[in-house]
Amino acid sequence: MNELRYVYAVTRPFGAALPKDLVGVAGSSPYQLRHHELAAVVSDVPATDFDAGPLKERLEDIDWLSDTARAHEAVVATLVSVGSPLPLRLATICRGDSGVRRLLEAGNDRFVRTLERLDGRVEWGVKVYARVPASQVSSPAPTRLRASTDQAPGTGRDFLRRRLGERRQEEHSWQSAAVVARALHAELTSRAQATRLHRPQQAKLSGASGQNILNAAYLVPRDDSADFIGAVNRLLPDEPGMSGEVTGPWAPYSFTEDPSDDNPFAEVDASDGDVVGEREERR
Amino acid sequence: MTSTGSDPLAERQVALVDLLDRLLAGGVVISGDLTLRIADVDLVRIDLKALISSVSAEVPSPWEVGP
């Protein structure tokens, strides 16, 4: 029985059909399920992968997770190109159409309010990386060290002094990188309607060279995007050892929680307080 | 809407880490019994062992195209 529904996003009902070749998670075909003044974009997914038990295991499989995340984003990105969807978190799954309707019904007020707040907005991601010149710090050391051993007196002290100087320089590089990143973030924040700081990405995961010192998301009216990106490109650090990157436009994934709403879950389901335990504040 | 030469999005696939920043830490979270209770797997914590052990080799450096 194919009764599980993967829910990608909540939107206003839309007239246009989704592209025929749009592929959702697990190769499924997304469609619109309307309920009163809202619609959910969903697709039918097999219980073998998406029922609670197997899903938990699948999510630990990086290839599966990656494929699923990309398919989720592909569907949401398509919706962004025609409207302002409210994206749901990865792996939101309901039982049957009735489950989806209940979801829309229960969250109606919150969805409507959030759709209004985010209408016509997109999210841009901006990251800044700093590379402290490791080669500069360590490679000249051996030669200097050799030089000092030739002149025996004072060796240890000179060496320590040099190390200290190098460390200060290293620290200085970090500090100035941080200053540049903070200034950029402040400027972009003043141009955005909302801001969210994501945790800096580990180089191990991103494969990036350099340390990620700013990983921010900005909520910007779609129509102002060109100006915003223009500003980003003007302001991105153009100094040795630093680099930046822009991603987007994204659906406003990072802004689905209303900042003025203390407990956005309460009205979706007041009966169940033990939810995800993960009500993490903007990080 | 990729507006500049330094914007590599046109040619490059979105990096998995950027995707997961949003899909695991963003998006509307539905609580209670309205959805399957995989919520018990705190998705954010997937970051995880799986990722760390296998992503790095597969994800192309977003950094090769720097401004």
From TrEMBL, chain A:
InterPro entries according to UniProt: GvpL/GvpF (IPR009430)
UniProt main location, coarse: other
Subcellular location(s) of the protein: Gas vesicle
Stretches for region Disordered: 138-157, 238-283
Record field: compositional bias (Polar residues): 138-152
Sorted UniProt keywords: Gas vesicle
Residues that span the membrane, as ranges: none
Domain of life: Bacteria
PANTHER family from the UniProt entry: PROTEIN GVPL 2 (PTHR36852:SF1)
Recorded family membership: Belongs to the gas vesicle GvpF/GvpL family.
Protein name: GvpL/GvpF family gas vesicle protein
Species, as recorded: Streptomyces albipurpureus
Taxonomic classification: Bacteria, Bacillati, Actinomycetota, Actinomycetes, Kitasatosporales
UniProtKB/TrEMBL annotation, chain B:
Keywords on record: Gas vesicle
Family from the record: Belongs to the gas vesicle GvpA family.
Name of a matching Pfam family: Gas_vesicle
Record localization: Gas vesicle
Disulfide bond keyword on record: no
Lineage of producing organism: Bacteria, Bacillati, Actinomycetota, Actinomycetes, Kitasatosporales
Chief subcellular location: other
Protein name: Gas vesicle protein
Domain of life of the organism encoding this protein: Bacteria
The keyword Lyase appears for this protein: no
